[in-house]
Protein 1
Amino acid sequence: MSKNTKIDGQHAIVNTASVSSTTDPRVPQPDLHARRMAREAEAWLAFARERGRMAEHTLVRKALGATAFSVRHDARSLAVPSKLVGTAQHQRRLWRLVSDGVEPWAELDLDAHGPLVASLGGEPLGEVQAKHAAWARPLVTFGLRVLVARVTGHETEGYRLGCNVVLAGVGEALARLRDALGTGGDGAASGVTASGVTASGVTASGDGHPGAVALHAPLRLVVPRPGTSHPGSPAPTPAASDPATPDPLDTVLVRAVDGSVRATCHHVRRHADALDWGRLGAGPADLALSVLTRVCGARVAEAHYGAFADAVVAAIPRAGGVVRAADVRAWVAARDVPPAA
């Protein structure tokens, strides 16, 4: 018997040269992938436990299911299967998807203001379930995507169609969020390690798509055009730099399920003990002052923070997002330009 063979049980003879131990650098790639999905699922479990209100047994079941799904589909990052709600209002669109077909794993557009409405080709299909929206919303900023899995249902009269989806790229989006929150200010990271993924340049393909796609840019700060002040109807101002390239002075805003907030800028205290956004008031005024001080300096901040709070901070979604430094500079530059004669 060769020195590279052993008896495995009563009958089988195994070639030990082809068997890798847990410390062997030649661990099969599928095993390494499964371990990575398990680590990302563990990180997601901690984050979802902090952000949402799902029961513990539901969270654990979801984490195990997501791990199995991600391994089976060879996902590049943890993917969480789910389904859309509110599909009863969008039956015609769903029937068109059945008749016309849809590209496998087609990416849906997300409206992050209010409920997470998922759309395809500009037409809504439904909403991300509330139990998932609580943890998914802050990750949209960092590359989480919603992909179509399949349309469910049949042609029985009165039966409504549904839409199964996959929340894809969860592990990498969570790592970017934790990395961003660890950059200082009032947003020190806690609970989950970023696993070495930085916000400055990671390629990811979400849910088993062939090849890689570029890192999604953070949600753009929406600011009014010069001369408008209604926060309900803002229009985007072009950034002064490539939006796909994060700026060290970008400010990440995250609101936890208990209402507490984290921001990656130093709190310049003037009116309130805590920062806030998505409304008018003392907390948003301090956030405006803090962001402008961080990006443009104290003099500019003093001159513009009141208008910035009213026009910009009040319009930021309550769940948070990324305040792009380039957009802040563009907003200030637009205000400093005298109106045309």
Protein 2
Amino acid sequence: MSIFISYILIIIFFHLEQNGRRFARHENKADNQQNNL
């Protein structure tokens, strides 16, 4: 049972990390647009 819970936690952590990178990428795009202005 604990193995199943740890497996779910790993999936959630990986999913959150991917979303965090995507969010950071959007933030960088916004900063670059402001710099171009």
Protein 3
Amino acid sequence: MAVPNLWRTKEQRYRLQGDVCPACSNTIFPPKRVCPHCHHGAAIPAVTDDRQDYAYVMLFEMPQVTELSAVGDD
């Protein structure tokens, strides 16, 4: 990503700003001028100051190594 584009979109990325398509009501993040689902234009802002943010974490445990094998030069 070019530096001017990074600074231009910095606020919307850190504030998690998105858009809502007025035609199909689909949420779009990051904001775009055209809805990727119905190709309708003129999206409206999706978030207000009274929003709640959610996050989740998925933890996985790797399986135990049962046998070591040599990989590389023959």
Protein 4
Amino acid sequence: MDQTSTNNLSTNIKKNPTRAPSTPREL
């Protein structure tokens, strides 16, 4: 995973932690 994807994923988790894809809890 590239840095941009990592940053976007982190931002998405912060904005919507209950609906963030690709998190360890949902995998």
